[in-house]
Write a structure and sequence with these properties.
The complex is a heterodimer of chains A (271) and B (298). Chain A is an all-alpha fold and 271 residues long. Chain A has helices spanning 2-15, 19-41, 43-46, 51-89, 92-95, 102-138, 150-177, 182-200, 213-219, 245-267; strands spanning 223-224, 238-239. The chains are: A mainly alpha (271), B alpha/beta (298). The A-B interface holds A 6-7, 9-10, 13-14, 17-18, 85, 88-91, 93-94, 96-101, 269-271 and B 11, 45, 48-52, 70-71, 73-74, 76, 78, 80-82, 84-89, 93, 96-97, 100-103, 141.
């Protein structure tokens, strides 16, 4: 356990000056900032919208872009970045001659990549909430405060995190085996596009393809509670079905590829 | 300190290490010599558990490497091939990262920077270091945890003559003053003979010599070296007179040394035939030639 903690700290120390780390902060910051600017400059047109609709217009486009393309590509890049540091500096041989178990070195690296994905999604969540509330303060006609989206949005982003794990494990393994950028990136990109098509055509087995999971997760997220027949329309209520098929598949794929990666590392000879 | 028993390894069809049995005594500087591609780095990788031997066993600190990997590695500092350095970090940050992993106090980092003369460049990105500076940083990383055993693969690659002398003196000092054991590989005998107490010579994956540096010198057979005005004619004369002439070079002839009396007779013979002998005497074959003989004959 000590070796694992030391390795995680070392991963942070090594990566804090790399693009992979800063991407996790800059990506949510830029995207949310763009949305924020869009809303603040068009506040007069958006002013009449009820809180729930306003929030959906604010977080919806970002989340859809995230699920469809941005998140898979970001995961592919993070998995590459964490491993590329060692490939580029030829430091696998050094890591494996340290008095730390190979399991700790591998698990710490994986955990760190996982943390970066979590951190990025957490920042998206916090920036979206923070900027939405800030918009209400700056432009009182934008009634973001009329509706509390915190719980719903937390569940959406947590679900996105869970469905990221399958892609992360696969990409982590590919980036562990190959030192060059093109192979893991190319495979990841092709798989993402193919998966988007499978989701687009409503292929019934798309949930089995990890790269399709973020898009599928968002498709199945929204359930607005309908009023009972004869009853007056109730306050719209958003719920997230957290553990859907694609979440379970993602978790199973993540566990399987993580274990497979460990066996590869155990057998890995540093030639 | 290190004992391997009939260690073997192959890449694909190529047998890279063939039944190598090393004996590295504690407190020695063991020079591991061999031409490029002889199997030095592969053997070192086997010693560090980076490669897994197909046959044979490795014992370090009297413990089996396979079953005591972490305990053994905690007492080894190593530098393999080109130093593995994170280019996006500064020299000092590279040491800080390693110190974090090995739980070495921060004061040791400055000591190491001082030791390898990188103090002034410690805040420069390692990607901007020259090859020699990278090599020195690699040595600092290997010594950071104050290991009992230091394994260095061609540590003076890319260093200037001053750097080579410094590293050599440093290694000698570490062994003499702190009782460390150093296992150092090189393809240059001249570099090894100035510091090693023990030598192992590997060629085509086979250990062709192992012993002390004195034992290696002892293999060298003495020769008579004659410097004179017409070496080729004189060599023909000596051949006709029944002497086994060895090498003839410019104005110099080499023959196997037998006795002082025979050397005197040789001199007399040449004088009788009016050859002007500038000098005549007994010489040992230098280690460089001996090394070439050993590696070329295997």
């Amino acid at each position: 356990m000590k070796g694992f903690i030391l390795s995680v700290r070392s991963e942070f120390y090594k990566s804090r000056k790399t693009l992979g780390f800063w991407c996790s902060i800059v990506l949510p910051l830029i995207i949310v900032a763009l949305m924020f600017i869009g809303f603040i400059t068009h506040s007069d047109k958006l002013g009449g919208m009820p809180g729930i609709m306003l929030w959906m217009s604010y977080v919806g486009p970002i989340s859809l872009v995230m699920g469809n393309l941005l998140l898979p590509m970001y995961i592919i890049f993070v998995a590459y970045s964490v491993n590329a540091m060692e490939h580029k500096a030829d430091t696998w041989k050094t890591l494996f001659t340290l008095p730390i178990s190979k399991w700790s070195v591998y698990a710490a690296k994986y955990f760190y990549a996982l943390f970066l994905v979590f951190f990025c999604l957490l920042l998206f969540y916090l920036f979206l909430l923070g900027s939405g509330n800030l918009l209400s303060m700056l432009k009182p006609e934008l009634k973001f405060t009329d509706f509390h989206i915190e719980g719903f949005l937390a569940q959406v982003y947590f679900k996105l995190f869970l469905v990221s794990l399958g892609i992360l494990s696969i990409q982590f393994l590919l980036s562990l085996i190959w030192g060059d950028f093109l192979k893991p990136m190319g495979i990841g990109f092709v798989c993402t596009i193919a998966s988007l098509i499978s989701v687009g055509v409503n292929w019934q087995y798309a949930y089995l393809v990890p790269y399709a999971h973020p898009a599928l997760a968002l498709h199945t997220v929204l359930h607005t509670q309908r009023p009972a027949p004869g009853q007056p329309p109730a306050q719209p209520h958003l719920t997230v079905d957290l553990f859907t098929h694609e979440v379970w598949v993602s978790l199973i794929v993540a566990a399987a590829f993580f274990i497979l990666g460990f066996f590869i590392v155990q057998k890995k000879s540093v030639k | 300190m290190i004992r391997t028993d009939r260690l073997s390894f192959h890449f694909g069809d190529q047998q890279v290490v063939k039944s190598v049995s090393l004996e590295v005594p504690q407190g020695s500087i063991y020079g591991f010599l061999g031409p490029n591609g002889a199997g030095k780095t592969t053997t070192i990788k086997l010693l560090l558990n980076l490669l897994h031997a197909e046959n044979g066993s490795i014992r370090i600190f009297d413990q089996d490497l396979q079953t005591n990997r972490i305990e053994i590695l905690s007492q080894i500092g190593s530098l393999i091939e080109q130093p593995a350095i994170y280019g996006h970090l500064t020299g000092k940050e590279n040491l800080c990262n390693r110190a974090l992993l090995l739980q070495v106090p921060a004061t040791r980092i400055d000591e190491m920077l001082e030791l390898v003369r990188l103090k002034s460049a410690s805040n420069k990105k390692a990607s901007q270091y020259s090859l020699g500076m990278k090599q020195r940083l690699g040595i600092a990383l290997a010594l950071l945890s104050d290991p009992k055993l230091i394994i260095l693969d061609e540590p003076t690659n890319g260093l200037d003559p001053n750097g080579i002398i410094e590293i050599r003196q440093l290694l000698i000092r570490l062994v003499k003053e702190q009782g460390k054991t150093v296992f150092v590989s090189s393809h240059l005998l001249a570099e090894i003979e100035r510091m090693a107490t023990h030598v192992g010579i590997i060629n085509h994956g086979e250990l062709v010599f192992q012993g002390t540096i004195e034992e290696l010198s002892g293999l060298s057979k003495p020769l008579v070296q004659i410097e004179l005005d017409n070496a080729v004619d004189a060599a023909n004369l000596l051949n006709r007179s029944g002497y086994a002439v060895g090498e003839v070079r410019d104005n110099t002839i080499f023959l196997p040394f037998t006795s002082k009396e025979d050397t005197g007779k040789l001199n007399a013979l040449l004088n009788q035939h009016n050859y002007l002998v500038y000098s005549i005497g007994k010489v040992q074959k230098d280690l460089e030639n001996l090394f070439l003989d050993i590696t070329q004959n295997t």
